Amino acid sequence: MSVLLSDDRGWLLDACSFINEGFRRCYSVNKGHFRCYFKKQYFDIQKPHIVSKCRSDSMISAVAHTESHVDGDARMELKTRRKRKRKRSELNQGELDAEEYHKKVRLLVLEGTRSLLESGHHCGYLTEDLHTVPTKQMPVHECQLAALCDMAKQLLKTENSEAPHVQAVNGHADSDAHLDLFSCLTENPDDCAREVTLMGETYFLPPRSRFLLSDITCLQPLIRNGDKYDLIVLDPPWENKSVKRSSRYSFLPSSQLKKLPVPLLSAAGCVVVTWVTNRPRHLRFVKEELYPHWGVKLLAEWLWVKVTRKGEVVFPLDSPHKKPYEVLLLGRFCASSDSTTRSEVCEIPDQRLIISIPSALHSQKPALSAVLKPYIRPKAKCLEMFARSLQPDWTSWGNEVIKFQHHSYFTVESVECAHDTFTEMTDADQQVDTRVTDKSACL
Question: PROSITE patterns in the record, alphabetically (predicted)?
Fold first, then answer.
């Protein structure tokens, strides 16, 4: 299950277990039925990426802190910030704006995480007693999907109006080799995950998942399909200095985001969620330009707080360089016929925290399905844009959309053990569900 605990401040998530839920039952033409797991080593963040000189700077744990400790830490951290070599007057406007934003959310992070992390320790999810041996750096598959998109874009300059809107995989390498992944949606229509061979590589596709492999210039197949979505989550490749210096990752200028056909893809009352970096100019752009341009009304601002397995934030909270949180801006697509939607869903609350152990893989965000479920209608259609992985019952789009479905990120369980393990895990999950229900507050 994804949501381990919740209260009126937010949620504690287990991102890895959510991925595994979709792969309890897998099928392969060659292997038959089996089960696979996303390698837990990628979520085995045992230590902060940067350790603060003052340990309390990097740990927000109710077990270790009381109200008086928080007040003392705040005074100590303020004193530390005053000792920076660069004076405030020497900071540029962007840095000044970032500092002001941090002041606004700092107390929310400190106080909002306390009860959830304390409960996480009590239920045994966050623990000081690490039973696993520290792992070496895991190998990362060299993804060529973006390059293939560029090649396909040159070859498919004219749109084929007779192309099917949706095509299904069947798991046979010969027939799947003829699938056009760039010009129409590809789906696994089955109720179990599928092992498939696409472009010579092996991937695991979750049940009832769809995807389009393309970049921002080739979105017509997504529009042509005709679906209107009740939830759209975007994780844009924001422009920043480190990305510009690196040739490994592409970025998209903010002005290009306005060209995304979000209004065409949105049903009445669609919830639009955008991951935003901590750069104030990106936040202002989404709030003041992008959402108004799309006809989306901003309703809430949430923070994703990244912690280690012990409950320590991955960067010191007051670090001038990296913050242990990222921002999500949530809004609704405004349409004249959205009254039917409003009666079926809850209002989106402001200032909530999502706390989880992050993936060691670049830009692998936690899935938001369980967290956002109360705010969208039942049986909602969901879309993720700029995706790098798939989810059951979702449509996903991006130029690396199946990157994290590559077989190298998974551990396959033997066919003989799969049925017994499935039964054991179901029983264990039911026990966890009961424990979490007793300790969590419904929002």
Answer: MT_A70 (PS51143), N6_MTASE (PS00092)
